[in-house]
Design brief:
Elements lengths: L7 H8 L7 H19 L12 H16 L6 H12 L8
Length: about 100
């Protein structure tokens, strides 16, 4: 996996987190969210050569927010359903 497509600062703004106590945790959530997005897209995010579409960034933000806010009661079925809806138009038929 290459560099993260969303920054820690952007993600903290999305989450409305102002402290730095959980920066490492949030960065790990970003990396995990991007892996999930790649799995649903069925191709690496690095294939976007020019810029990442906003819907894909929002998919990452959504996933990170679920990981962060619902980490003790995470519903992966719901996350996958929303991600598939957000990413449908970019998804490849197979790997």
């Amino acid at each position: 996996m290459g560099p993260l497509i969303v920054t820690l600062e952007e993600t903290k703004l999305w989450l409305r987190v102002e402290h730095s106590d959980e920066d490492a945790l949030i960065e790990s959530f970003i990396a995990a969210a991007e892996e999930l997005v790649e799995g649903i897209l069925r191709f690496p995010l690095s294939e976007f050569e020019v810029s990442i579409p906003e819907a894909i960034k929002y998919a990452v933000f959504f996933t990170v927010s679920k990981f962060y806010e619902e980490r003790n009661e995470l519903n992966m079925e719901e996350i996958n359903s929303v991600l598939k809806a957000l990413l449908f138009s970019y998804r490849k038929v197979d790997w």
